[in-house]
Amino acid sequence: MPPVTDPGRRTPPHHQHVTGGVAVIRETSVPPSPEPRPVVGSLPAYSHVASAAIRWRASSNEAPVPPSPLAVRAAAEAAAKAHLYPSLGGEGLIRALASHHDIEPDRVAVGPGSLALLERLLLAYTGEGTEVVHAWRSYEAYPIVVAIAGARSIGVPLDASYRHDVDAMLESMTVRTRAVIICNPNNPTGTVLEPSELERLVRSIPANVLVVIDEAYREFDENAPDTLNLLSLPNVALLRTFSKAYGLAGLRAGYLLASPRICLAIRKVGLPFALNRIAEAAGTAALADRDHLQSVVRTVWERREHLAAKLSTLADVPRSHANFLWLQIGDQATVVADTCARAGLSIRPFAGEGVRVTVGDPNVDEILLDSLSLSRASTGPQGLNNGRSQWA
Questions:
Q1: How far apart are the first and last CA of the chain?
Q2: What is the pTM of this model?
């Protein structure tokens, strides 16, 4: 029986070369291979260049100290059972979170980090031909996960105070808008909306549009608003994480508070056993250790104010409500970051805009101040305060 030929499959071009009466066929083109969706080719890939010269990390907004001893002990005990699958959907942590926030368990969902939960939300509620509105500059992962979901990202420039521009965000919405993401406190500027403005924004969004409030840094906000009251609205989802104040960045655990219908939708698009047993155990234990949490938060508050006071003489530093500071230094961003790296310190540059610096490690202060001073000396007294970048 002759082989079946696929009419849609091309045979690679080739030519014959005869050597000693033996015909040798050599391909002259690259063999075909699978092609990813066009949108994938346009996405940036996360990359981390490891360097032995880096001794201090102030680029990823990690906690300044190890997690709660209770969490460490729980993680070790859970690791001893790593040969067993974890609970299907993180039910133990869900029950602990429901009790902690005094809400029903069906209004809680958990996953391997809050970004994974955001991706699930967008997969469930957006898609081709739809739009997602968010501020910009904001968390750099937003445009990426929006594109993965097939939607179009609508970045709305921050206002003159580096905050979400409520009116501009509302005006940017169209019939194609399916979700609005609010990062509060905002990453990387550390700024927050006034509670009244946050509520005005949320309540002005139509009920058929998903509202995601990303609160990854809320524990560091001295006057964090009570956003749980917004859960009375059927379209609101609150994203929170154990990676920052709880110090579990290496285990990847985040959670979402929303209506039962929203929680059910993201469970449907999520993978089973997504939250590993160590992360679930550590998160549950960390949640119970409120003394440790408050100790971490107080440490960040003190060191944040100390560093901000020093930096404000050299650069434009908006008031931060997170565990990092934003320095609006325009074209000097990469220069300062490179200078810090040569001194063994990693910070997060945003080319042409500024740098974000995690607070908490006292070793950071002197290196950063020296790097800023060097840059200022090389560019003149106005070199680090050269105006806002034009963001789009």
A1: 62
A2: 0.89
Amino acid at 232: S
Tokens of 55: 């001794």
Low-confidence winner among 67-81, 299-313, 356-370 (lowest mean pLDDT): 356-370
pLDDT at 378 (0 to 100): 72
Check if the beta carbon of residue 25 is closer than 8 Å to that of residue 14.
Answer: yes
Which overall architecture, per CATH, does domain 56-63+291-379 show?
Answer: Alpha-Beta Complex (3.90)
Q: Which CATH architecture has domain 69-289?
A: 3-Layer(aba) Sandwich (3.40)
Cis before residue 178, ω within 30 degrees of 0?
Answer: no
pLDDT given for residue 53 in this prediction: 85
Residue ranges of domains in the chain: 56-63+291-379, 69-289
CB atoms < 10 A from the CB of 179, how many?
25
**Cβ atoms of 337 and 349 closer than 8 Å:** yes
Question: Are 237 and 266 within 8 A, CB to CB?
Answer: no
Q: Which residue type is seen at 109?
A: A
**How far apart (Å, rounded) are the C-alpha atoms in residues 322 and 300?**
9
What is the amino acid identity at position 177? T
In which order are the strands placed within the sheet that holds 108-111? 108-111, 254-258, 236-241, 210-214, 177-183, 131-136, 152-157
